[in-house]
Write a structure and sequence with these properties.
The structure holds two protein chains of two kinds. Chain A is built from five helices and four strands. By secondary structure, chain A is of the alpha+beta class. In chain A, strands 2-1-3-4 form a four-stranded mixed β-sheet. In chain A, about 35% of the residues are buried. By secondary structure, chain B is α/β, with parallel strands linked by helices. Helices cover about 40% and strands about 15% of the residues of chain B. Chain B is globular and about 90 Å long. The chains are: A alpha+beta, B alpha/beta. The interface between A and B is medium-sized, with 34 and 36 residues.
């Protein structure tokens, strides 16, 4: 070990290993992972979100799972919870849409309206 | 690098290992691969969480959900429910946390952790102690880097002095002063030692630090070496701590590979090397001069002071000796500042103290609280109170060198000075809780038995004096106490305190003196009335069958191992007191609760 900078280098690399265990007060992304969610393909959606966040070096976002919210027909469901308490519910997720949410909603702070439960419901109703 | 969406932390401390955590780790690996999520979830063996009574403990991140008393069969549920479906397995949450919703399942919400401030235990149960990278990720070795590249040895000592840190091993001597004395001694060769010969019955915080966060001790010793001008350190750890020894060995090896031990650390020109020395289990080797004699390869016996170790210590060279918990605080002082550290605690006792809770308490385990926390908060709010609704009688602190604090002082803020005022001492932090069923004379006898056993025999006051005290106590608890015995105990205690060679001998009478101070009536009851008020001392108590409550079923007589209960269907059963061995089986078996313990 020659310098503090060298130590910092190791620390940064090691942080990826343990970040999940640090207290996080930032945004939480919750993926519905009950039987309905898993059957509809929630697992690849969740893994995509985790990978996308890592790719962009975003460390203050927690990705976690939850049970069935009740609207099983709209699974996989992903919710983005802001520290201020606001919540956006995305439905009918796919890995591609999940990528989009990370780049638009998480990085740029623009809600992907098209995927939200309100919009999807509206479209379904107009079809009917 | 493999990305994991979830981490499963399993406690690998001694407590949880003995309740099968190794098998649980293996089972997790099996179940995860069965569910094909072994590439998404990582299993980490970590150090002690402190909630040893409810071990083995498993924590699942990112939720931070804590599962307790996990059995191998439960692993399948945690994997299929929590890790696959995201449903917390509620039946495995800690007891005081059962009916909360899943967002609140994290360990910070558990009553046991809420009041704690973890400085010395900051990484225990958080990192994998066998991976130096995880320690570095939590700012490990940053303090060392800062010290070696930005500070002079004098500034380092100054910071430790300003922090107000005092020795956590027993006496509570100001750590900064100790460092200063050693630094001022002129010599080519000096040594830095770590006392990891934790011997007080009931105390195990040093073991937990070594098992859960060995690098913090290595980092602190290196800082100490720089401050006092020593290039060699030894960690004296008892051989009864195999897991701690193994993790220390791994940690030292990793630190050497990273160049954090060895030559020219951080390109500062400072070199430091560290070795482990194993103790053979003698209690006296926790005394500083005996410890050094033992490292030198001789029989572990204390020697008179002065000269103090700071002047003439190991191999007659100036030596700095601190205990494990003291060292574990050092890196944080440099990361967060001496002022920050000094802002925690009371006027003369700064920072936190780790206590090992044991005895009659619900949450047996390790807790770390700011100095000045009251005994009531520790026992009732963190410790979960006393089992079976019994009444608190006293708490024993400081092990065989300490004393008892009675219920009347339960609201006194705990720090070094308040405990001494009460006739006890901080010691290493063992805290044994006693309820109404404990006999204080018996407790004093227990600790004296320990001291007599462990006395090294070098000086007569300790070798002979404590033995005589024990004989008197045995007489008293046997119902053969004589008028004047209590006074004899007091004289002996005073003389031993004044004349024994080392700290252990000088403090050996403390358990007797402090119980005499607060519970003299119990001693008197034993001697004069031949009664043990708590019903512990067998020779002083009888089991009696209440004739009018006896239904003459004969169950007691059938279960009595020495056949000393007589009677038949026509008259109530009677215990023959001559033959009775006071095992209590009859009282336990009586379906009508007609048998009483009569003190």
């Amino acid at each position: 070990m020659k310098s503090l900078a060298e130590l910092e280098e190791i620390r940064k690399k090691a942080l990826d290993k343990i970040n999940i265990r640090k207290e996080n007060n930032g945004v939480r992304i919750v993926v519905g992972m009950a039987t309905c969610g898993i059957a509809a393909g929630a697992r690849p959606v969740m893994n995509t979100i985790v990978e996308e966040l890592k790719k962009r070096n975003i460390n203050d976002v927690t990705v976690t799972m939850t049970g069935c919210i009740g609207v099983c027909r709209l699974e996989p469901i992903v919710e983005v919870l802001d520290p201020d308490g606001s919540r956006v519910t995305y439905v009918n997720m796919t890995p591609e849409k999940a990528q989009h949410i990370v780049s638009e909603h998480i990085v740029n702070g623009r809600i992907c309206l098209d995927y939200t439960i309100g919009e999807v419901e509206k479209k379904e109703k107009s079809k009917a | 690098m493999q990305i994991y969406r979830s981490h499963v932390l399993v406690c690998g401390g001694t407590g949880c290992t003995s309740s099968n955590s190794e098998k649980i780790i293996k089972e997790f690996e099996v179940q995860l691969s069965k569910e094909k999520i072994d590439n998404e979830v990582k299993v980490v063996k970590t150090g002690c969480f402190g909630l040893c009574a409810q071990g083995p403990v498993v924590v699942v991140y990112p939720e931070g959900a804590m599962y307790t008393m996990v059995k191998v069969e439960d692993v399948k549920d945690i994997v299929s429910e929590h890790l696959v479906k995201g449903r917390i397995v509620k039946r495995l949450l800690p007891k005081d946390n059962m009916d909360i919703d899943k967002d609140d399942a994290s360990l910070e919400k558990v009553e046991f952790f809420k009041k704690q401030v973890r400085i010395a235990l900051r990484n225990c149960g958080v990192i994998n102690p066998e991976d130096i990278d995880e320690y570095i990720a939590f700012d490990g070795y940053k303090a060392l880097g800062k010290v070696l590249t930005e500070m002079t040895p004098d500034q380092v000592i100054d910071s430790v002095k300003k922090s107000g840190l005092r020795g956590r091993g027993g006496g509570g001597f100001p750590t900064g002063l100790k460092w200063e004395f050693t630094a001022k001694s002129q010599n080519q060769q000096k040594y830095v030692l770590c006392n990891a010969d934790e011997g007080d019955p009931g105390a195990f915080m040093d073991r937990s630090v070594l098992e859960g966060d060995p690098h913090s001790v290595i980092e602190a010793m290196t800082i100490a070496g720089y401050a006092v001008g020593a290039s060699q350190g030894y960690i004296y750890v008892r051989a009864e701590y195999p897991i701690a020894v193994k993790r220390l060995q791994i940690a030292i090896k990793q630190a050497k590979e990273y160049g954090l031990l060895g030559n020219n650390i951080f390109d500062s020109g400072f070199s430091f090397d560290l070795e482990i020395r194993l103790g053979a289990g003698a209690f006296v080797c926790g005394e500083e001069t005996a410890l050094m004699t033992s490292i030198e390869g001789k029989r572990g016996e204390p020697r008179p002071r002065p000269p103090f170790p700071a002047v003439k210590g190991l191999w007659q060279k100036p030596t700095l000796l601190n205990n494990v918990e003291t060292y574990a605080n050092i890196p944080v002082i440099f990361l967060k500042g001496a002022e920050w550290f000094a802002s925690i605690g009371t006027a003369k006792s700064k920072g936190t103290k780790v206590f090992a809770l044991g005895g009659k308490i619900n949450n047996t385990g390790l807790v770390e609280v700011p100095m000045g926390t009251t005994m009531r908060e520790v026992i009732y709010e963190i410790g979960g109170g006393i089992p079976n609704g019994k009444k608190f009688k006293a708490a024993q602190t400081g092990g065989p060198s300490g004393g008892c604090i009675p219920a009347s002082h339960i609201d006194v803020p705990i720090d070094y000075d308040s405990l001494i005022e009460l006739g006890s001492m901080m010691g290493s932090g063992g805290l044994i809780v006693m309820d109404e069923d404990n006999c204080m004379v018996d407790i004093a006898k227990f600790f004296l038995e320990f001291t007599v056993d462990e006395s090294c025999g070098k000086c007569p006051p300790c070798r002979i004096g404590t033995k005589r005290m024990l004989e008197i106590l045995e007489r008293i608890t046997d119902g053969k106490g004589e008028e004047g015995d209590i006074e004899k105990l007091e004289i002996l205690a005073k003389n031993i305190k004044a004349s024994a060679l080392c700290g252990l001998g000088q403090t050996a009478p403390n358990p007797v003196l402090s119980t005499l101070r607060y519970f003299r009536n119990e001693y008197e009851a034993h001697v004069k009335d031949k009664k043990c008020l708590a019903g512990v001392c067998k020779s002083l108590m009888r089991y009696v069958i209440q004739p009018d409550a006896c239904k003459k079923c004969g169950i007691c007589a059938r279960n009595c191992p020495v056949n000393c209960i007589e009677g038949d269907k026509t008259k109530a059963y009677v215990i023959d007191q001559e033959k009775c061995i006071k095992c209590g089986t009859c009282m336990e078996k009586c379906p009508f609760k007609a048998i009483f313990k009569n003190a």
